[in-house]
Amino acid sequence: xxxxxxxxxxxxxxxxxxxxxxxxxxxxxxxxxxxxxxxxxxxxxxxxxxxxxxxxxxxxxxxxxxxxxxxxxxxxxxxxxxxxxxxxxxxxxxxxxxxxxxxxxxxxxxxxxxxxxxxxxxxxxxxxxxxxxxxxxxxxxxxxxxxxxxxxxxxxxxxxxxxxxxxxxxxxxxxxxxxxxxxxxxxxxxxxxxxxxxxxxxxxxxxxxxxxxxxxxxxxxxxxxxxxxxxxxxxxxxxxxxxxxxxxxxxxxxxxxxxxxxxxxxxxxxxxxxxxxxxxxxxxxxxxxxxxxxxxxxxxxxxxxxxxxxxxxxxxxxxxxxxxxxxxxxxxxxxxxxxxxxxxxxxxxxxxxxxxxxxxxxxxxxxxxxxxxxxxxxxxxxxxxxxxxxxxxxxxxxxxxxxxxxxxxxxxxxxxxxxxxxxxxxxxxxxxxxxxxxxxxxxxxxxxxxxxxxxxxxxxxxxxxxxxxxxxxxxxxxxxxxxxxxxxxxxxxxxxxxxxxxxxxxxxx
Length: 509
Known about the structure:
It is built from twelve helices and 20 strands.
């Protein structure tokens, strides 16, 4: 499998051939690219070739959000662990029934998200252990997310800036992490990232009663304990560069990304993710390998707080910042009466996007007939957050011993995939049934690591014993169930979903 550089700038992506020099990137934009060409490969036997293009606007679902896991716009929901009510007056219509709450969120903010920020407030248990009843409440919500095929940007906190701050200690946090680790491990497939949380208002690491967040020893102990509690391949995040820099444990640092909770492109007082900020080099470096999440401020239609934002954030500038820092997820709940509606009404063309140095999925601004169309800024950002993997072409040939398959992939999203996903090749017969056991594809390294060399997946003995005429046509199917847990029977704890893989590949400004 040939994976082009996961972090190529779009200017270089446009120059890359995507199939051993057979075609350029631009040919994938043609309405009817050539299909199933046969050519002589570098090994014995005839190779069959099929090229693919991206989704056009007039394809079925061509304007819908792709439900790829752990990326894209997100909603937000908050629960007190004691009774699954929300501490916020504007969330009183949120139900412990996750499916019902997601329907409410879609009604309020629109479709287009398969991720949600998920807060659990442990205010009632800040200085005690978490009782089994509260752990059961947390599990109920996680199970509901799994059933709804929605993943969580997970955060636990004690202080909500409504009730008095609690006097928790580092030891209290460590006790709670030990209690939560087995539960979160069972639901690792629904956890996009487990944010640091715990300290200060809303778990943002400012204003805790004992100021633990200002002491490097305390910060190191908390982050070391949190990283030990993380399921395999799940990252954590902190908001501030200065807090991450306090961690004196390289093993812990390797699992810590960032979340920006005040995206204003540097115009607001609390957006630190800007060139010239002392943390900027770290944000650039860490975002290449670690999960990145963000949200804009609440707007003045949502909040009377002085930090509320009242003007539309420029979508091209926002997209460039999201691309530069390789953001995976972004809230569509914040600034939902100012910027989000503005983005829904701003049209973008392919020329504008390319001129800004932004990635473009093949066929994204086209109809089947090749005609150009515009997309809204909301659609463009929604569809390019995180990864967006495209199959460019597949090659296969049959020998006396095996059916060999090669698949070329490219990523036109803002970020590289941050969590390895298993990929399998499956031979399907004309009825859609599998005619051979799934075979894992080799990509030159575990998961979706960048710069993997070309590799061939062998599907095992040919099911029709060498008869090319009757050999079922090989098709590629991506099996992207959780890479963090072994398969279990459907409906049991730890069940991993079978996701369609729709997109992926990071780029930089």
